[in-house]
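Write out the bound-state structure for flavin mononucleotide.
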Amino acid sequence: MAARLGTRVKPVTCVEDLRLLAKRRVPRMFYDYADSGSWTESTYRANATDLDAITLRQRVAVNVGNRSQHSKMIGEPVVMPVAIAPTGMTGMQHADGEILAARAAEKFGVPFTLSTMSVCSIEDVAAHTTKPFWFQLYLMRDREFSLSLIKRAKAAGCSALMLTLDLQILGQRHKDIKNGLSVPPKPTLANLVNMASKLHWCRAMLATRRRQFGNIVGHVKGIDDMSSLSAWTSEQFDPGLDWDAVAWVKEHWGGKLILKGILDVEDAKLAVASGADALIVSNHGGRQLDGAPSSISALPEIAAAVAPQIEVWMDGGIRSGQDVLKALALGAKGTLIGRAFLYGLGAAGEQGVAQCLAIIQKELDLTMAFCGLTAIEQIDGQVLRALPWSR
Ligand SMILES: Cc1cc2nc3c(=O)[nH]c(=O)nc-3n(C[C@H](O)[C@H](O)[C@H](O)COP(=O)(O)O)c2cc1C
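---
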């Protein structure tokens, strides 16, 4: 039976239901921050529409009585090959958002990735969870500060470092500029009026002390307050990030390294040469290069070129278990979800993230059954009909 969230009368049965609830409950500037892409949003839309356009082969008269979605990502056992992607300002979708999402992921048995630009700090998330999580790093011009983030992630017991390669310069999202996105929100008349209609969000936010960029404020000399993400990004993120810098990060981290934001075969080969453990085929959820290919359309060529020398994962547009199965069929060993879990969080906090994960797992389970499959290792290109798009 589908669970009910809050006072909603109709049961929540899919990620789209969570999105609609989040839209009602989260202040506009933060909902828009999640549900938008850069410039015309063509890549953002393509991520989902290219996944939708893939059709599956239905198989019958196969014994599918005993199914499992268990798998591994970089050697870590996962209940299904779906990790929570790093997302900035998650603690603005819901008070204490990173802690709540990390707890939901831990209870469910999938990895959680904490963004550099999180509201709850590395130490705070570690203090409220019992298993290691992953930390996502944006490389800063100030290498001392980058190093301190790496050391803090190590000290917190993080089991992998995810270095993001596709956002040293910020793509433009029109809505963020128009909404005057800031953390915490500025008390303008428009913001106050909008927030007044989000009572649950306001109550929870007033009850927490976590309303800043927790990994940064108080950790960088001279930064006691930081409201503008775009100003900080343009001043601090290092546009000089190159493969030497990747080697520098790898050497200082010394553990499992995941490279995020690969869309091109040449870059994928360089990722292999860097010695990283996994790469993520990703266009940052359509938030950076508008006009870049959808992640799912870039995946097959990259997987064919570099797997299994490196684990190939994919994110972008995944809203269902069917989408996960399609990504696995096209060569991904793992997937990540960004907006899907954010919608769950905005809709109903920890319970909403848990519900998002449960929905995706159930869809994956049933879709495997309809395709005549009982284990994740059985999923390959045979499950797909002809691809509707080409590169
Ligand atoms: C609101 C939002 C914030 C994000 N912040 C980060 C971030 O801080 N670091 C990062 O590497 N990726 C970030 N991403 C990209 C996600 O990690 C992921 O690549 C993307 O969300 C996948 O697409 P999906 O949202 O369609 O699942 C962000 C994405 C969203 C939607």
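---
The longest helix spans residues 339-370.
Residues 33-34, 47, 85-88, 115, 117, 136, 164, 260, 282, 284-285, 287, 315-318, 337-340 surround flavin mononucleotide (CB under 6 Å).
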